[in-house]
């Protein structure tokens, strides 16, 4: 099945970003400005164009530079595939499980005020919950890969971590690799342990006055915690995945990807943009979430999207347990699968830009140019050059 993009984020930013900056809006962080500029310039002549040519037929190929910004949908996808291929040989040769730890929405104001400090606590307490359970119940040291997401399907703020835990590990008693038998877990137990660990850290921050908040006093703070505990915190477990390739392909959906896929942008109509999303509260006849369309004005879409631009130098992917010290794992305990990870890249999947389309010979690098003109103008100019070269070759043949 071939996937095609109907629209890009750059297209919508180019239409409305300059007007948005002139209007009243919430102050933007430097990283947000940087992300938007990167997306607008990605794969354009502004960042540079490498020119390659075939020595036999003279065909010229222009290869545009990528912005490499973490928030760019194109660059983040390619980073994901590189990461997936690298990680495949560094995982234990046991099944793995996808686990999601979610923070209550009532904590969002505290997270907005305290930024990376509470997100660091989320990473640490979620991984500790899994590691402590494995050590006490199964006497195993497991590996955990954690990926932070700050968004839900409609791109509203929704703080959670996707985690891949090895469903097995190194025995504390024998030092051998052992698989956890069965897949039943008590989700309420994990939710309670996670909540207690996270709230203990919150209380410590409040006590040492490092927590930024608007509570009148300690009693008000503790009342707030009691209130959010009336509902169980959410911890979700997927069934174990048996093959490492399946594990990597699965977590690849969540790792270094930007918060919106351009394949989900269904329409750009004037000031409005529409994108598809899965409504997990509505299950269809096929027992899958119903796909719906969200339409937003650029004044609403830009702040909703940009609130998820990562904080500077903040690591969105982290490793815990024995995956934090990969060099200590015996080679015979690691995955030895040789399957390649499927890549659904748009341009590179269909054509290798370094090989001539006609002669199938490797192209040779000529030079790099930088130009402020639009990509469309340069593509037209390149087309005219090819037509001209075709006529010259035809006359000399």
Give an overview of the whole structure:
Helix 1 crosses helix 2 (30-41) and helix 5 (116-138) crosses helix 6 (187-207). Mean pLDDT is 85; it is low at 343-350 and 387-397. The chain has 397 residues and is of the alpha+beta class. It contains eleven helices and 14 strands. The strands form four sheets. Strands 9-3-6-5-13 form a five-stranded antiparallel β-sheet, sandwiched between helices. A three-stranded antiparallel β-sheet has the order 2-1-14, with no helix packed on it. The protein has helices spanning 9-22, 30-41, 73-87, 108-114, 116-138, 187-207, 218-228, 244-251, 298-306, 347-350, 375-396, and strands at 49-53, 60-64, 96-102, 140-141, 143-151, 157-166, 168-171, 177-179, 234-237, 265-269, 272-283, 289-297, 317-321, 364-369.
Structural class: alpha+beta
Largest sheet: 5 strands, antiparallel
User: Tally of extended strands?
Assistant: 14
Q: What is the subunit arrangement here?
A: single chain
Radius of gyration (Å): 25 Å
Helix and strand element order: HHEEHEHHEEEEEHHEHEEEHEHEH
Instruction: Please report which band the strand proportion falls in: under 5%, 5-15%, 15-25%, 25-35%, 35-45% or over 45%.
Output: 15-25%
Number of helices: 11
Strand order of the largest sheet: 9-3-6-5-13
Report the end-to-end length measured between terminal Cα atoms: 40 Å
Shape: globular
Q: How would you state the average pLDDT, rounded?
A: 85
| Unreliable stretches covering 5 or more consecutive residues | 343-350, 387-397
Binned, the helix content reads 25-40%
């Amino acid at each position: 099945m071939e996937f095609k993009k109907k629209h890009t984020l750059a297209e919508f930013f180019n239409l409305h970003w300059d007007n948005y900056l002139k209007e009243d809006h919430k102050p933007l962080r430097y990283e947000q400005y940087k992300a938007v500029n990167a997306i607008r310039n990605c794969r354009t002549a502004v960042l540079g164009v490498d020119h390659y040519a075939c020595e036999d037929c003279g065909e010229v190929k222009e290869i545009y530079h990528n912005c490499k910004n973490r928030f760019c949908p194109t660059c983040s996808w390619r980073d994901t595939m590189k990461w997936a291929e690298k990680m495949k040989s560094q995982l234990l040769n046991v099944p793995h499980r996808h686990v999601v730890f979610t923070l209550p929405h009532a904590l969002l104001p505290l997270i907005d005020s305290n930024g990376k400090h509470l997100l660091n606590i989320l990473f640490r307490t979620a991984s500790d919950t899994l590691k402590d359970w494995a050590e006490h119940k199964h006497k195993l040291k497991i590996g955990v890969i954690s990926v932070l997401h700050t968004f839900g399907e409609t791109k509203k703020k929704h703080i959670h971590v996707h985690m891949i835990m090895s469903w097995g590990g190194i025995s504390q008693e024998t030092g051998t690799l052992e698989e956890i038998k069965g897949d039943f877990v008590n989700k309420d137990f994990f939710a309670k342990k996670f909540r207690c660990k996270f709230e203990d850290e919150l209380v410590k921050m409040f006590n040492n006055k490092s927590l930024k908040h608007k509570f009148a006093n300690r009693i008000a703070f503790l009342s707030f915690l009691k209130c959010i505990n009336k509902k169980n915190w959410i911890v979700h477990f997927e069934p174990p995945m048996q093959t490492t390739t399946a594990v990597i392909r699965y977590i690849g959906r969540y790792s270094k990807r930007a918060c919106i896929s351009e394949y989900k942008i269904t329409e750009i109509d004037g000031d409005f943009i529409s994108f598809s999303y899965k409504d997990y509260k509505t299950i269809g006849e096929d027992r899958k979430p119903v796909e719906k369309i969200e339409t937003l004005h650029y004044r609403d879409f830009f702040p909703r999207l940009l609130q998820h631009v990562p904080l500077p130098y903040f690591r969105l992917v982290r490793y815990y347990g024995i995956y934090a010290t990969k060099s200590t794992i015996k080679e015979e305990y690691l995955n030895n699968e040789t399957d390649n990870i499927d890549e659904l890249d748009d341009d590179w999947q269909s054509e290798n830009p370094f090989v001539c389309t006609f002669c199938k010979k490797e192209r040779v690098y000529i030079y790099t140019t930088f130009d402020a003109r639009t990509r469309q103008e340069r593509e037209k100019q390149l087309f005219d050059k090819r037509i001209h070269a075709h006529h010259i070759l035809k006359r000399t043949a």
